[in-house]
Design goal:
Blueprint: E1 14-18, H1 23-34, E2 38-43, H2 46-58, E3 65-68, H3 76-90, E4 95-98, H4 114-140, E5 145-150, H5 163-183, E6 189-195, H6 202-207, H7 223-230, E7 241-245, E8 248-251
Parallel strand pairs: 1-2, 1-4, 2-3, 4-5, 5-6, 6-7
Antiparallel strand pairs: 7-8
Helix pairs in contact: 1-7, 3-4, 4-5
Length: about 260
Amino acid sequence: MFNSLSPQSLQDRVILVTGALEGLGRAVTLACAAEGASVILSSFQEKDLEPVYDQIIERGYPEPAILPLDLEQAGEAEYIAAADRIGEAFGRLDGLAQCAAFAPYLSRIDDYDVSEWERVLKINLTAPFTLIQACLPLLRLSEDAAIVLTSDRVGHKGLAYWGAYAAAKFGTEGLMQVLADELRGSSRIRVNSLDPGILRTALRANLYPGEDPSHHPLPETVAWAYVQLLGPEGRGFMGQALRIEQDRLVPWTACS
């Protein structure tokens, strides 16, 4: 399936994007807004998201909303309260793009700090689960809802030193498969995972400080794939682990 999107393919849809402050999340946020969506920007603090909010307004896109949510510190009550705020403001949710990610360092399992392991799993796996669970009632109110979980190559084939981040991404794939199997045939919610590939992000720079970042594409070059999965063009995808190849969404395979 090619990335030829119809004009305003997300018109009138309400889309929640986590990690909207920078990198992939910011790129997906702006792409969704450009396609006509009312985007709910989520990151740690409201003031951090104001520049993204202003950029959307300046471009003449639909007015977004800000939903501050600390994925490390928030508990079940905070996620339920966040979903309630979305429900009060919009009455439903048409899409959730989970783009937030955290990886502190690369390390051998021998040396991995246990508290950091737990932190990475909470932000990358437990937080997405808790947010999805809280938002499922709102997603069920949509005529055509979609969840996109951001995956990674190390969530399909484990690589040395990726530690908790790889374990969390393997868990992401498991969460996607279980949720898809539960929702298939019983709701209008689609759920898939997407490995966007190696991108020029702050997370990558933190893990590989000596690497030349110009070797990797910008997040903006893959944002179309999230738009496609969140909109009507994504109706053919359900319960699939996907990656991008030559501007197409294709199934992920371990040999890739």
